[in-house]
Design a protein that fits this description.
Shape: globular
Structural class: alpha+beta
Strand content: 15-25%
Oligomer: single chain
Helix content: 25-40%
Number of helices: 16
Length: 835
């Protein structure tokens, strides 16, 4: 790689300013984790890379962590001033770290452009010099397009100023900078019509100082070419502030140089975080608080538990001292086990100057934790309905025009793909009638993902059967397609939700004879829609014989209808069969007609699958899970619904394959035990014992006692899956599997986790997620009862969850399976905590 250094170089020096210069200069170094570290400042160099689907996920390139906040990212060569989620980004070809010389060198490639470059970062005294190295001059096609960008988190600079050479400015709280018309519309702009428009720089200078008044956010950037400041939010709500310098054409030497001075505060230590459950604890349950410390923080004040009296008195409670747990990721941890404290009441924890919000110890602490998810989150997620809450209309009767057959051999932007045939009677572009009923918005966007639909149905049905949930606070009127939140209608809410999902699954089988991948917006402009979903389409089926905007006989010439992806997948079919069979059980006695339809359809689809080789079409995460797992789930749910021997035989036949991947199938396997011969349970026992050994190793790897994932989507779902698996196996094998994992899991979800002490279930716990990636994220708001992915580990070692910026989907996006899992987990904890 060193031979490439004769090319052009873009140098970025990381220095400090003012009184912190000497200390920072001595401290900046390339550490064992492969990033540059100074006094309260880290510079990551391609520790994180773009994931290929949403290239601009704001985790990649050169990144700055300043005093505990990742405030800058995407330091890289990009082809537009304010790149969006689908704009091109270079792929990392190789990355080499040499601690001896203090160099990190990364080769990147824009494959479609056949253009490579190297980003070299090296230690130089108290600085980090970053160079972009070209093998040859910039191609003419990239002139005026390729530039070095660095993006700065808007919420970190709200209410702050900047200096651009001699000029001054205030970072805009809301995007309001000038725009210029362009020849083509940027597909990432979120607009489907009208001319193209790009942001104009807010300011241009050779030197910028960001937040000069705030030592914790002050960064100085200077260069030998103009640097432009853009507001990416003019293009899309999830845009960032961007500093950018264009790469000049026709030069092969050092053509551009920046110096980035990141202010370091001498002696800065990250404030301690007292991780604990914001919800509280049952008197007889485990109670552990974990203090997260800067590794340089050697202070050890006592960690105290305080009981709060009704007169405001705060009385220390004897607990014994906290113990040293050790290091995990980039922090050091102490732990206090106060399980011996059983007296009901209000409490808080104190460590030095840090105090938590109040939490409860109470017998009923888990009893209502699932209510916001039941009462608000799931009603708001209901598609094809108007949803009203007192003075507020959450959304109108959306997607009445569902949906049109997707084009052949088409790959969608969000993990959907249509194969070489439609596998339906419909031609590409034709309306498939009957799909405009039931179902839930999958996530923070508005698609119906079938895999999520049947997962939710099975989970809600399980909760209904296990815990007898009869809560009634929501009125659902399918005939009027209307929902009223906080208005009882005499029917159990969970049963009505199961019915709503079932209606959509049945509509798929009625329309095309099999489960479909899903129904999703056709283009980026509709996909990025924020606001009332009823406004995404005109609600009228498309008629190609009409002119655009023309309406006649209840049909429209506007092709805004969602696309239906329909390639056959046996795994997806089996998953839907499992959902319908589970639904049939809980609908019985509540809606017998719908229950009968669900079971008849499930058995007919099962019989059909036995007549041919499996359809193995697979793409993304929309075509079902592993075939054996989905087939096993279908057999188990049909067995539970019918008690027929044919399904028991299939369960037994599939068991050897399921045992090999027990972790992902344990709950389903345990659910079959009451309906299977004793030999089935006997065969499970050694597998369960091995699972306990493996999961205990994973739980001991961090101070929180649960498996913590490190991928691009954070791990709340994994944690709840671990806790619910433990609950299911504890019910089936109480002498082998403890119930402690249930308490650890629910504590993690409500605040006992790395990075912060916030509850990941909105409106559950004293302090919970109030800025989340729901479909109302542009309002920096939340939906009560929604569950977010939670702690995302920014590689290699930075746990992050933003409460000030909702647009990190891997940290903050609600998805419906996690909402259903939370209902199950809260009720499991409540059941186990009963004396």
């Amino acid at each position: 790689m060193l031979r490439h250094l004769r090319g052009c170089a873009l140098a970025i020096g990381l220095l400090t300013s003012g009184s912190a210069l000497a200390q920072s200069a001595a401290a900046v170094d390339l550490n064992e984790a492969g990033y540059f570290e100074g006094a309260g400042v880290n510079v990551l160099v391609f520790s994180n890379t773009y994931d290929g689907l949403f290239a601009d996920s704001k985790i990649g390139g050169i990144e700055i962590i300043q005093q505990g906040l990742r405030s800058a990212t995407n330091g890289d060569v990009r082809l537009s001033p304010t790149p969006g989620q689908w704009d091109p980004a270079a792929a990392v070809v190789s990355r080499k770290v040499d601690r001896r010389t203090g160099v990190v060198e990364t080769r990147l490639r824009y494959a479609e452009l056949k253009w490579d470059y190297v980003v070299r970062a090296e230690r130089k005294g108290g600085a980090v010099v970053i160079s972009v190295v070209l093998d040859k001059p910039l191609p003419k096609a990239l002139s005026g397009k390729a530039g070095f960008n660095m993006e700065f988190l808007p919420s970190a600079y709200f209410h702050h100023s900047y200096v651009a050479d001699a000029a001054t400015g205030i970072f805009p709280r809301y995007p309001a900078s000038e725009m210029t018309l362009t020849a083509e519309r940027n597909a990432a702009s979120g607009r489907s019509e009208g001319p193209g428009a790009d942001p104009v720089p807010i300011a241009s200078a050779s030197r910028f100082v960001l937040a000069p008044e705030d030592p914790a956010r002050r960064i100085t950037v200077s260069g030998n070419a103009p640097i432009m400041l853009y507001d990416g939010r003019n293009q899309a709500q999830n845009g960032w502030f961007v500093l950018r310098s264009l790469l000049p054409e026709g030069k092969s030497g050092t053509v551009l140089q920046w110096t980035v001075d990141v202010n370091a505060v001498p002696g800065w230590l990250r404030p301690p975080v007292i991780a604990h459950s914001q919800l509280g604890y049952a008197p007889g349950g485990a109670k552990v608080a974990t203090v997260e410390l800067d590794r340089n923080d050697k202070r050890r004040p006592p960690l105290r538990l305080l009981r709060i009296g009704d007169n405001g008195a705060q009385t220390p409670v004897a607990t014994g001292p906290a113990r040293e747990w050790g290091d995990y990721l980039r922090y050091h941890y102490l732990q206090l086990d106060f399980s011996a404290v059983k007296q009901s009441g209000l409490y808080m924890l104190e460590y030095g100057d840090v105090r938590t919000a109040p939490f409860r110890i109470a017998q009923d602490v888990y009893a209502d934790a699932w209510h916001p998810t039941n009462d608000v989150y799931f009603p708001v997620a209901m598609d094809h309905m108007t949803v009203n809450e007192a003075y507020r209309v959450w959304h109108g009767d959306s997607h009445r025009d569902d949906g049109r057959q997707a084009p052949l051999n088409h790959e969608h932007i969000d993990l959907y793909r249509q194969g070489p045939t439609t596998d339906t009677p419909y031609k590409p572009g034709e309306t498939i009638p009957g799909l405009n009923v039931g179902g839930w918005y999958d996530a923070g966007d508005f698609d119906i993902r079938t895999q999520s639909q049947y997962e939710v149905i099975r989970s809600l049905a399980e909760s209904r059967e296990l815990y007898g949930l009869n809560r009634d606070t929501v009125s659902v009127d399918p005939a009027r397609r209307h929902v009223e939140i906080h208005v009882p209608d005499g029917k159990p809410d969970i049963v009505q939700q199961v019915a709503h999902g079932t209606i959509q699954l049945l509509a798929q089988f009625d329309a095309v004879g099999h489960a479909i991948h899903g129904i999703v917006e056709p283009d980026v402009a509709q996909y990025t829609h924020l606001g009332d979903a009823v406004n995404k389409t005109d609600g009228l089926p498309y008629d190609a014989g009409l002119k655009p905007q023309e309406v006649r006989n209840g049909r429209s010439g506007t092709p805004d209808d969602r696309w239906v992806f329909t390639s056959k997948s046996s795994a997806l079919n089996y998953g839907a069969i499992a959902g319908l069979a589970a639904a049939a059980r809980v609908l019985k006695g509540q809606d017998d007609s719908l229950a009968d339809r669900a079971l008849v359809t499930a058995e007919k689809a099962w019989a059909g699958e036995q007549t041919h080789a499996p359809d193995l079409f697979s793409h993304g995460n929309t075509t079902g899970g592993p075939l054996d797992a989905e087939s096993f789930a279908a057999a188990v749910e049909l067995l539970r619904a019918t008690r027929k021997p044919v399904y028991a035989e299939r369960v037994m036949a599939l068991w050897p394959d399921i045992a090999k991947n027990f972790r992902g199938n344990a709950m389903t396997a345990a659910a079959a035990i009451p309906y299977m011969p004793a030999s089935y349970r006997a065969a499970m026992e050694p597998v369960v014992r091995q699972w306990v050994k493996e999961i205990e190793v994973a739980a001991r790897a961090n101070p929180f006692g649960v498996p913590i994932t490190t991928g691009g989507w954070a791990g709340s779902g994994t944690v709840m899956g671990y806790a619910l698996t433990s609950a299911a196996l504890h019910r089936a094998f109480p002498d082998i599997v403890s119930s402690e994992a249930v308490y650890r899991g629910i504590a993690f979800m409500t605040g006992h986790h790395p990075g912060s002490d916030i509850s990941f279930v909105s409106a559950v716990g004293t302090r919970s997620k109030e800025v989340a990636y729901g479909n109302n994220r542009a309002d920096f708001s939340f939906i009560a009862g929604g569950v977010v992915p939670g702690v995302l580990v920014v590689k290699p070692d930075f746990p992050e969850n933003h409460e000030d910026w909702p647009f990190f989907w891997g940290e903050n996006e609600y998805v419906i399976p996690e909402g259903a899992a939370w209902i199950d987990l809260a009720n499991a904890a409540d059941r186990l905590s009963k004396p």
